[in-house]
Amino acid sequence: MRRLAVCGANSSPGDPLVGLDTTFLSDVLRQDETAVALLGELADSKERHVTTALNAAELFNGAASSRHGERMFKQIQELLEGIVVLPFDRDASTIFGELTRKLTRHGSALPFLDLMIVASLLAHGETRVVTRNVRDFEKVPGMVVLSY
After folding, report:
1. What is the pTM (predicted TM-score) of this model?
2. Coil, helix or strand for 125?
């Protein structure tokens, strides 16, 4: 499996960020051709690659319920070594509450965990996410969804 460099192979800390959602990371772990090709493009870019602690937890939760759990745990740990994992912190909690209020008023609430993931990304200045879960993430004002 190709590893992402923490800041992308050609990037530096001031370069733009791109958030990697659980669907994308899962597809990379499953060696989905499209996801792996996009991983290669991202690894060669000037973009810093991030995910959230919540995405990591989703991956490990999936591994825990698999009969191949031990192997999957190792693969997930290896994949995450090359990615900055953002925390869910006080700023993310505030953004989570604000988004919940806004989206509920407009009748477009997101699943709880997806909203926490978006809040984590936004709290760290990230407005782009790579995912197959376009339907939920595109509801968030200002969030750019990169699908594959």
Report:
1. 0.86
2. coil
Tokens encoding 133: 């879960």
Tokens of 82: 């090359």
In SS3 terms, 13-52 reads as CCCCEEEECHHHHHHHHCCCHHHHHHHHHHHCCCCEEEEE
- Structural domains in the chain, CATH included, are 17-146 (3.40.50.1010)
Write out pLDDT tens, residues 104-141. Answer: 998 888 899 999 999 999 999 999 999 999 999 999 98
Run of H or E residues at 7: none
User: Six-digit token pair at 63?
Assistant: 């591994």
Residue 41, classified by CB atoms within 10 Å of its CB into exposed (0-12), middle (13-18) or buried (19+), is exposed
Q: Which residue has the tokens 């595109």?
A: 138
